[in-house]
Amino acid sequence: MSEPSASAAPHLRRLLDLLADDAPAEALGAVSSQARADGVPAGDLAEVERATATALRIRGALRQHRRRELQLTALFDTAGDLAASRDLDEVLNAIVRRARMLLGTDTAYLTLPDEEAGDTYMRVTDGSVSVQFQRLRLELGEGLGGLVAQTASPYATPDYRTDDRFHHTRNIDSAVLDDGLVAILGVPLLLGSSRGGTGKVIGVLFAADRAPRVFSPDEVALLCSLAAHAAIAIDTARALDDTRSALDELAGANAELAEANAAVRAHSAAMRRAEESHDRLTDLVLRGRDVKEVAAAVAGLLDSPLTIHDPGGRPLAAVRPDGTDFAVDSMDAGWLAETAEESRTGARAVHRDGRWICAVLAGRELMAGLVLHRRRQLDDSDRRLFERASVVTGLLLLLRRTVAETENRIRGELITDLLTDADRDPAGLAERGRRLGVDLDRPHLLLVAEGGTRERLVPAAMRYLFGGEIHGVSAEHHGNVVLLIGAGDPGPAAGDVARAAAAQLGQLVQAPVTVAATGPARGARELASAYREAARCLRALRVLGRTGEGACVEELGFLGVVLGNAQDVDGFVSATLGPLLDYDARRGTHLIRTLGAYFGSGGSLIRAKDELHVHVNTVVQRLDRVQVLLGRDWNEPGRALELQLALRLHALAGGRER
Fold first, then answer.
1. Is residue 317 classed as helix, strand or coil in its secondary structure?
2. What number of other Cβ atoms are within 10 A of residue 42's Cβ?
3. Is residue 306 classed as helix, strand or coil in its secondary structure?
4. How far apart are alpha carbons 535 and 104 in whole angstroms?
5. Which among 446, 476, 439 is positioned nearest to 461, based on CA atoms?
6. Which is higher by pLDDT, 106 or 635?
7. How far is CA 202 from the centre of its chain?
8. Which end of the chain is more exposed for a tag (fewer CB within 10 A), N or C?
9. Which string of b and e fits 221-248 if b means at least 16 CB within 10 Å?
């Protein structure tokens, strides 16, 4: 960034002061107006306006980050409140009240099944104004709540009255209309599993607005996390109620009183241990600890080695009960996904191949897998502790990802400006990069990816960078995703990185992803030029039909430049080599291979027959057939060049037969 003039400096300092004071956007926007009114020269005025725009973006990102922190802090406070509650009514009211506060909705409510009546009833509401709605009872399977309970999955609707995914009834629609509700989000309260192996829905938690609203994935994940804590708290409260009832029933049974008291004491001790463990794990998250420390705490509590793996099977932590690290290989991603899905469906830990596995979820998204290396069985209290650890780990990973996404979004704006107009202010771009922790003067590999849908590819690129040991930043540009990855010295070749990125992004997106790479490059101008080269390489891969693959500019050579303009490769190859391709296809001959060997050996029949492992007379006979099919001028310089180019294109496209 160029040095500001004396007349612009006070206004730039004013922007920094306003940012430090968290001033409103209007105050930031007024700085450029004041500079214009003070008669700041045009060049300096443009600098002030650009600085104002940057300050507004930074303010927006910081406010969003603070909002996420407040939400997570409120969620942790909720976990503490629920853990301290013993009365069921207290627990239910706290759940609904906090749900409304966390999502900022007009109302929140909770329904529970009535086992005796065989239906569902409104148990607790907060913010409701309709007596009809507060006394609502509905049959199983009706409305949005019925769908949530049947599928054990969250559902959201921006306008319930016009949404035909749910079984509408006059009773429900009338109550919803009477309370004025429009947008509704419902998530299941899951607990344990039934004998059939499926999770048991013990209730449904709702948040609703009286105006149309689209609930974001983060809001759905937040309410799901609250529901997970709520289910545990309800289970705890019910268990304590059961304990009290058991004590009352045993009061008159003197002969069995001692044994019963011992069982109750053991149960209470197990409950206290589980609650204390949950509080300890939650405290680790509140103190900003990392995944390894959570793993160490769980391994110590359960006296067994514990590993945490990302969805791709890569280890995030591996700790023994004494807190020491140990080496562990990546886990088979397919096996982990299958076992984690079983854990998610049953809402509990599962035992497979001498290991206990519990899925770490944010809503329906698999964020990681907790693996306890223990062959012996877990008792109920230890199993619950292990399952609670997965909830806490999910909160920690969600918090880390939220922070990383916010940082990446700010850095992504730098990449967008870099690729849009690198010549405008290369020094300023480099300075912005240094402030954001991106040293543009160091060598980087630049990757351009396309495939699937934007809604899937953009977050997949973020998870690709966040989930592994890759240091980089991603941004969306002209409909594609651009990744800037630090290039070590020595580091992997651009082509290797492109192929690895295509494979991993394809797994995350669940669709073919094509990746083109170039570099290393450094500096604003070199990186902008590298992007243009990578974009041409991506177009060339598309033209060659190599969708879902990764390659670098150097691997395509001059053909990358030729094909980058989307020429009709198949048409050119067919027009040039068509008779030979047809003949080989019909007769099972090898004219194409023979012609390639002949040109590759510089026109030497001897070297060609050695490469083909045939007699020289066979080479002559095949070339005679080539002359019959292509004409006498096939070996003339101009025609030979066309044939060699077509052979090269045919080989790059994978030698596809006609």
1. strand
2. 8
3. strand
4. 43
5. 476
6. 106
7. 29
8. C
9. bbbbbbbbbbbbbbbbbeebeeeeeeee
Handedness of CA 45, 50, 54, 56 (dihedral sign): positive
CA distances 179 to 107, 108, 144, 175, 647, Å, are: 10, 12, 16, 6, 72
- Which residue in 242, 269, 291, 243 sits closest to 382, CA to CA? 269
Q: Record the tokens describing residue 43, joined without a space.
A: 């060049």
Residue 121: enclosing H or E segment and its boundaries? strand 119-126
For residue 27, give both structure tokens.
């105050």
Only one residue has tokens 């099944």, namely 113
Inter-residue contact 122 to 114 (CB < 8 Å): no
Cα torsion through 12, 17, 23, 24, rounded to 10: 0
For 477-516, what is the HEC assignment?
ECCEEEEEEECCCCCCCHHHHHHHHHHHHHHHHCCCCEEE
Any idea which residue has 């480099």 for tokens?
430
Strands 155-157 and 137-139: unpaired
> What one-character-per-residue DSSP string does 189-246 give?
EEEEE-TTSPEEEEEEEEEEESS--PPPHHHHHHHHHHHHHHHHHHHHHHHHHHHHHH
d(C-alpha 386, C-alpha 380), whole Å: 10
Cβ–Cβ < 8 Å for 206, 95 = no
Nearest to 223 by CA among 344, 98, 128: 98
Provide the phi-psi class of 510: left if phi over 0, else alpha when psi is between -120 and 50, else beta. left
User: Taking a C-beta distance cutoff of 8 angstroms, is the pair 196, 359 a contact?
Assistant: no
Q: Residue 366 is encoded by which pair of tokens?
A: 């698999």
How many residues are listed for the chain in this entry? 658
| Cα dist from 156 to 127, 225, 573, 591, whole Å | 19, 16, 52, 62
pLDDT digits (tens, 9 = 90+) for 357-390: 888 777 777 777 778 888 777 777 778 777 777 7
Grade residue 620 by pLDDT with cuts at 50, 70 and 90.
confident
Give the pLDDT confidence of 262-318 residue by residue, as tens digits: 555 655 655 666 666 666 666 666 565 677 777 787 778 788 888 888 777 778 788
Position 72: which residue type? L
- Specify the pTM: 0.40
Q: Are 362 and 225 in contact (CB under 8 A)?
A: yes
Q: How many of the other CB atoms lie within 10 Å of CB of 454?
A: 12
**The two structure tokens encoding residue 534:** 């990578």
Encoding tokens for residue 50? 């650009």
- Buried/exposed 415-426: b ≥16 CB within 10 Å, e otherwise: bebbbeebeebb
CA 195 to chain centre: 33
Tokens encoding 162: 């016009």
> Which amino acid type is present at position 551?
A
Buried b (16+ CB within 10 A) or exposed e, 378-407: beebbbbbbbbbbbbbbbbbbbebbeebee
Residue whose tokens read 């149960």: 267
Residues 6+ apart with CB under 8 A from 217: 363
Query: How far is residue 25 from each of residues 12, 29, 60, 63, 619, measured CA to CA in Å?
Result: 15, 6, 9, 11, 78
Residue 261 to residues 253, 270, 347, 444, 531, Cα–Cα distance (Å) = 11, 14, 31, 68, 73
